[in-house]
Design brief:
Length: about 130
């Protein structure tokens, strides 16, 4: 292999690697960076906005109920048993059309798990 072909091979490898990294999902850094804002939401943040936030704002409690049933299975830690219970309670309240109880369920789960989730699982891909 000539010096020139080695150089071209190196350039090609670098370009290929950069392209692969550019298409990979972003992960949070140890300081909580990269994902998490409006421009680049983390996986759960994006899912919650699309599947719960938007329907909630539109008053579509039937869609919120379906999403909260799904959210009940999305806990990243088996020790977080109240995650599923809160989600299921919110789903039941949404199914009944009880907006206040639905919001209370969401609030209780967020108060209990949001900070720990962001610290430990922020960039976790959803199941």
């Amino acid at each position: 292999m000539t010096k020139r072909s080695k150089g071209l091979s190196l350039v090609a490898a670098l370009l290929f690697g950069a392209a692969a990294l550019g298409s990979a999902p972003h992960a949070a850094s140890a300081d909580g960076g990269t994902c998490g804002g409006k421009e680049n939401p983390c996986p759960l943040q994006k899912w919650m906005k699309v599947n719960i936030g938007t329907p909630m704002a539109a008053g579509d409690l039937a869609a919120v109920s379906v999403a909260l049933e799904k959210a009940a299975s999305m806990s990243p830690d088996p020790a977080w048993g109240e995650w599923a219970a809160s989600s299921k309670a919110g789903a039941a309240a949404a199914k009944k059309g009880d907006l206040a109880a639905t919001k209370a369920s969401c609030k209780s789960c967020h108060e209990k798990y949001k900070d720990a989730y962001k610290e430990k699982f922020r960039a976790r891909l959803l199941p």
